[in-house]
Amino acid sequence: MKKAISLFYLLSFGLLLNAQKYDNTWLWGFKPELQDSTILRRGNSQGQFIGNNFIVSDVPREMIFDYTNHTFCDVDGNLLFYTNGMRIKDSASHNTINGDSLNYGSFWEYCRTQELQGYYSYSVAYSHFALPQPQHDSIFYLFHERADTIPPVWKGSMCYSVIKKRTDGKLEASKKNQLLSTVRPTCGGVNACRHANGRDWWILYMQVETNCVNKFLLTPDTLVFISSQCLGTTYDWTDGIKSYFSLDGSVFVKTGTAHGTDIYSFDRCSCDLQLLHHLNPVFEIDSFSGATIDYIEGSDLSANNRYLYLCMSRFVFQYDLEAPDVEASLDTVGTVDYFTDTVYASGGKYYFNFTQYGPDGKIYIGPKGGCRFMSTIDFPDSGGVSCHVGVRSVVLTKLDAFSLQFSPNYRLGRLLGSACDTIYSDIKPLYTQPPWLKVFPNPATDEVQFDYNWVEWESIEDLKLKIEDLSGRVVMEQQIPKYSTKQNFSVKQLAAGVYTVQLYGNGLSGNKVSIANCKLVKQ
After folding, report:
1. Which of 88, 233, 285, 472 is the most exposed place for a label (fewest CB within 10 A)?
2. Does domain 437-522 have CATH number 2.40.10.10?
3. CA 449, chain centre distance (Å)
4. CB neighbours (10 Å) of residue 333?
5. Spatial CA neighbour of 334 closest among 301, 365, 295, 371
6. Is the dihedral of CA 18, 164, 201, 419 positive or negative?
7. Contact yes or no for 253/239 (Cβ under 8 A)
8. CB distance 164 to 171 below 8 Å
């Protein structure tokens, strides 16, 4: 696996991108009409990646979230719009113009009945995400899976809607529920990756009950079907749990409970997939009832493409894709504590659920039952328990169930040196700030967050951050991913004083390259 992945190009963020905070704000929660400010039983919560924290606050927005959850921000991280699969609302919690009846059909009507009774909402996991139309700062494409029938019979289709910011500042769904393809996707079988030219977007979705992938390309002028490619495992509609790209775009993964996990290489120029590995299913069957009692809820790949995480209802598993026997490398790195929230009379027992990378480089794990906690994988690039699964490490303001933000990696830039990196040869870069490194809070006590901006990463390998005292002695050094722009550090063990912090890496010729510096004051 290591040799296969090493053949693919390095990630480039690129000076040409200024869009780095589209996923900076998250929303979740359910039953807002039962909200009570005294007992805080139900309602909405909001999370924002600000400074050195993931700030969770109580910001009711009158939205019932279920499996379907996506928010989209502007380039500065300010909320633009959000959806639960039923409708699209703006930052003021008003329906966008023509934003109601998203995914309209018999399943929509069924979910609407549940909403009116104060229960649940649209329930198609890992299914909705927005992309900015290339070279347009006021046009956005929302891709969404539409369920066309009522359970237990599941049928669906792949759709898109176009959201525009009008001259009066209001958002309008100028096109809605447009059919992308008549071929049904698997549940959770859609995702996107930036083209190697750093401008366009590839959109892939897995066809249901076949092993074929449909490929589309979003450009400044059009959304066009490219091709279908058939390879790997066949997934049915209910088994397709999650499809996603590695943060550098060189790997594509699809995983499900009954059919296991396929790992592919991905060519960001041609959109070509090649099967690298298949992992057998991991789930537990009750010996008495025959029912599945523990199954995959989410999955993600570490930034260094080495560790694959499978998030089950009760466990977090890790595979080492560089191990001689990948199947045998399966390791349990996290276990739920079965905590039952006694603060809320209707709070449920805690189980793991969906997963999503945050802008801070952590993998976040949502709750399965109605409870007010999320978990995190704090160091995904580390093997074994050193990846540190923080069970219930994030406390929400309200109960949540089966709901977590779903987004592609907006921070991926062009792939310099690739066969298709010619598009920007005569275009002035959009983002021209020099590299910088900031630390919050400063002065610091126990925990800090380092915030670093965009540089041309194609010439940098093994990005590291080191802290030196005034004598030049290195007191702390850690490898960090190029894909997040934010990293948390514990400085509790440092003595009080002034320190120099350096962000650096190795050039392709092996020489050390200093990227940015800052001062840290430890109290």
Report:
1. 472
2. no
3. 20
4. 19
5. 365
6. negative
7. no
8. yes
The sign of the dihedral angle between the CA atoms of 13, 19, 21, 22 is: negative
In the chain, where the domains are located: 19-400, 437-522
pLDDT computed for residue 114 by the predictor: 82
Check residue 428 and give its pLDDT.
40
Q: Report the alpha-carbon distance of residue 453 to residue 484 in Å, rounded.
A: 9
Highest mean pLDDT, choosing among 261-275, 341-355, 473-487, 500-514: 261-275
User: Hey, how many other C-beta atoms are within 10 angstroms of the C-beta on 520?
Assistant: 21
What's the rounded Cα separation, in Å, for the pair 255 and 515?
37
Q: Which amino acid is at 330?
A: L
For residue 457, give the 3-state DSSP assignment.
Answer: helix
Three-class DSSP category at 53? strand
Residue 37 confidence (pLDDT): 45
Q: Are 360 and 378 in contact (CB under 8 A)?
A: no
Sheet holding 201-207, edge to edge: 185-194, 201-207, 212-218, 223-230
Helix or strand (DSSP H, E) at 2: helix 2-6
60-115 per-position pLDDT tens digit: 677 888 899 999 999 878 899 999 999 999 999 899 999 999 999 989 999 998 88
- When the candidates are 2.130.10.10, 2.30.39.10, 3.30.70.120, 3.30.70.260, the CATH number that belongs to 19-400 is 2.130.10.10
Answer whether residue 195 shows pLDDT above 70.
Answer: yes
Instruction: Provide the pLDDT confidence category of residue 409 given band limits of 50, 70 and 90.
Output: very high
Compute the distance between CA of residue 449 and CA of residue 487 in angstroms, rounded to an integer: 5
In the prediction, which pLDDT does 41 show?
A: 46
Please give the mean pLDDT across all residues of the chain.
Answer: 84
Strand stretches in 125-200, DSSP E: 128-132, 139-147, 156-165, 171-181, 185-194
Structure pTM?
A: 0.82
Which of 88, 83, 416 lies closest to 269, judged by CA? Answer: 416
The highest-confidence range among 144-153, 189-198, 237-246, 487-496, by mean pLDDT, is 189-198
Poorest-pLDDT segment among 9-23, 64-78, 251-265: 9-23
At a CB cut-off of 8 Å and minimum separation 6, what does 351 contact?
Answer: 313, 314, 336, 367, 368, 369
